């Protein structure tokens, strides 16, 4: 029976090699020391990174992030020379970015669910209310909502959207008035964190359980919250253009041909969900001799960057002109994905580099699109958090050391000893970065080469 494997994202795994002692038939003097039954070494983390160790310009106590509850959320946001953070007493504070000096504080019993838009900070309280505060610390409004477990907040146009598991709420950004609240069936749905609005239609993604669990997109009327349509086995849209939604279709266990492979892009009418056909991007592979079929990640995911659709085809990465689709067209470009079976695509391009996570070591890896050369941002301990801004790569390691690298040269530029193994997303504003490490927020002035 052919086995099927659906690949998923792994983080924080370190691959170690095992070496066994050599045995000789010759006569030797007995050693008094006891010999190990198994000896393990890991060359990947045996060298020390040589970089100047710098001290933070300032440190401020904040609430530690709960990655299970807030997987993508930071306890702070940085805007206009200020940092707005939820401190250790669950208050919103404004800090001067350069010095860490506290400018004001607001409220109490707040959660690390924050967003900023046009001089207003929006956030959530532990009791489930949403609030709005000006950049100067003046309360604009507060509205009871009952979303005590909210994990996502986003302003789109005149509306603030709040996500909590299978629930979604729409709030008028100016007045704080609740426009609508909706909830899907919690017995079959679980909420994911992406949301978009276009031409009066709100699209949100979920995991939905049938005989198997797959991603589903639901479309709602943005004014009323009324559900317009849904599509099972469809990923969050690649794009919406001219009234058509483009989404990668999940064909796992429907079309598992191990040799004649394809990625299918489904097309739906934005208003009605009516199918407008699909596109297929095809390639062939040699069938695995062990009979496994691998799907997802490096084996058939895709994402859109500008006009280019990148399709991960196992050993090959291929790009196509998405807006000039022709059936069975050849790729515009192809690259070999070296060590492809260890890579997870991060679906991101920056400075001409395609980024991956090497799940055998957890390290950040990139491929230069100009040459196909793979480059690795090696550390001397496993990576916990990695972020890229401009010409810099910023990595928090499991030993509590935070490193800054030059994106282009890979040269380590600086290190910071944070004292914590826990890291949240790094923030950047002007010539400063802000490291969320354990229960502290650290302000670090960047060296000139990374500003």
Automatic annotation (TrEMBL):
Stretches assigned to the Pyrrolo-quinoline quinone repeat domain: 127-374
The organism's place on the tree of life at top rank: Bacteria
Pfam families: PQQ_2
Keyword tags: Kinase, Serine/threonine-protein kinase, Transferase
Keyword Transferase appears in the UniProt entry: yes
SMART domains linked to this entry: PQQ (SM00564)
InterPro entries linked to this entry: PQQ_b-propeller_rpt, PQQ_rpt_dom, Quinoprotein_ADH-like_sf, WD40/YVTN_repeat-like_dom_sf
Classification via SUPFAM superfamilies: Quinoprotein alcohol dehydrogenase-like
Molecular functions per Gene Ontology: protein serine/threonine kinase activity
Protein name per its UniProtKB record: PQQ-binding-like beta-propeller repeat protein
Organism, scientific name: Paenibacillus polymyxa (Bacillus polymyxa)
